[in-house]
Specification:
Oligomer: single chain
CATH topology: Rossmann fold
Number of domains: 1
Largest sheet: 8 strands, mixed
Distance between the termini: 45 Å
Number of helices: 9
Strand content: 5-15%
Structural class: alpha/beta
Shape: globular
Radius of gyration: 20 Å
CATH architecture: 3-Layer(aba) Sandwich
Helix content: 10-25%
Strand order of the largest sheet: 1-4-6-5-7-8-9-10
CATH superfamily: Alpha/Beta hydrolase fold, catalytic domain
Length: 416
């Protein structure tokens, strides 16, 4: 009988290997064989799955020595891999030995709600093994206003949810503004580095290198959206042969933008959109979360004007933003909408519908409809929105060699 415990059976390399992976395997034929599609679990199947065990208390700190702090998994079965090798210029060596700090949930004993003091950013990998595996992997970028990383509702809860669909999950622990880092450079850099790292290890982790994407929540969406727009610039800036991940693309194959903070298109910004920008799923509450709904719509409108295929948006009439105060003094929680306080539909089920329609729930190695549609679109003459088709990334990038290619966006410095 299949076990729901998420164990990465393949040894994960903690040292970088000079792997070369393609960002996008172009092919013109879309295979739609019905027997290659993983059926969605029905209610009986879900009920038969044992719940994922919750961690009991705060993870034990990593060993204290002269090496960078070793982040520990927040869920059983997770394997943590640092984003950067020791001594990387991306790390603040004077702080990289500091331990992460975990904030525990008041409502659920033993549940980690958020993490702060992240100086050795990492990913926590939960793979799906055996026949259930689709090869798809979603990097989860939690929100928290760049002041905390809300990995409870906006990361950990999604590990068992997506596992039921055969989708591996990767919890991103990116650096935060409260700890002295820039959301527009350091945090976005972490997200794009995570995509490259997962793609580099795709084979050993039983992940399809053409089914790797990112889902960002609120402030985390401020990392996912730039990853979808500026991957070409990022890869050019990180093409030095000395980079152990040089030649491995940071392009996400799909993005999820969930009640986002400011995107690269906020305040009428108009960065060029690559012709092969990935498909996107966007969702937010409407009037109850007006500012974030406007930011969601700005991203959708930019992609629509650029005719980027397979961009879908759901704006709900009811709902609030995570962190908003409730009448009883508590705060709105985020994540899955069948939990607690975000009553704007089962958006995660609509996401799975979209994900399935684009072919990401097929067996590994089968080309997705999303990939085929991008190939078809790229072959067409460029038209529509100004800047579309150039594929050169935005202009006017500040000259910071350690910074990723992100939009200079004053609105994104003060997200909720």
């Amino acid at each position: 009988m299949r076990t729901p415990f998420l164990v990465c059976r393949n040894p994960i390399q903690t040292a970088f290997t000079p792997l070369v992976a393609s960002a996008f395997m172009a092919s013109t034929a879309f295979v739609a064989a019905q027997d290659s599609i993983t059926p969605p679990p029905n209610a009986a199947t879900r009920a038969a799955l044992a719940p994922l065990p919750m961690p009991l208390g705060v993870p034990k700190p990593g060993p204290t020595n002269d090496a960078p702090y070793a982040p520990q998994p927040i869920l059983p079965g997770g394997v943590v891999v640092p984003l950067y090798s020791p001594g990387s210029p991306f790390l603040k060596m004077e702080r990289v030995r500091e331990a992460e700090q975990y904030n525990m949930s008041r409502a659920v004993p033993g549940r980690i709600s958020s993490i702060v003091n992240i100086h050795n950013p990492s990913i926590e990998v939960h793979t799906v093994e055996g026949g259930l595996n689709t090869g798809a992997a979603i990097i989860l970028a939690a929100g928290g206003g760049h002041n905390t990383l809300n990995v409870g509702g906006e990361s950990a809860d999604f590990v068992p949810y997506f596992f039921n669909y055969g989708v591996s999950t990767v919890i991103l622990r990116n650096r935060l503004r409260r700890d002295g880092y820039s959301p527009q450079t350091d945090a976005v850099n972490d997200a794009m580095q995570a995509i490259r790292l997962v793609r580099a290890h795709a084979k050993s982790w039983n992940i399809d290198p053409n089914k790797i994407g990112i889902m960002g929540f609120s402030a985390g969406a401020e990392l996912a959206a730039p990853a979808a727009v500026f991957f070409e610039d990022f890869d050019k800036k990180h093409s030095d042969p000395a980079d152990p991940l040089a030649g491995i693309s940071s392009r996400p194959d799909f993005v999820g933008i969930i009640y986002p903070g400011p995107t690269p298109f906020a305040r009428n910004a108009n960065p060029p959109i690559p012709r092969n920008a990935p498909p996107a799923f966007i969702t937010c509450a409407g009037a109850g979360d007006r500012g974030h709904a406007v930011w969601a719509n700005e991203y959708f409108t930019a992609m629509l004007q650029a005719s980027i295929p397979n961009v879908e948006m759901h704006i709900y009439g009811n709902g609030r933003h995570p962190g908003d105060a409730l009448p009883d003094g508590s705060r709105m929680s985020g994540g899955l909408t069948d939990r607690n306080n975000i009553p704007f539909g089962k958006w995660q089920d609509r996401y799975v519908d979209w994900f399935r329609d684009l072919g990401f729930l097929q067996k590994p190695g089968v080309e997705t409809k999303a990939a085929a549609d991008v190939v078809t679109f790229v072959k067409q003459p460029a038209r529509g929105r100004g800047g579309v088709g150039g594929g050169q990334g935005r202009q006017g990038q500040p000259g910071n060699t350690n910074a990723p290619a992100t939009a200079t966006n004053p609105a994104s410095t003060t997200p909720k």
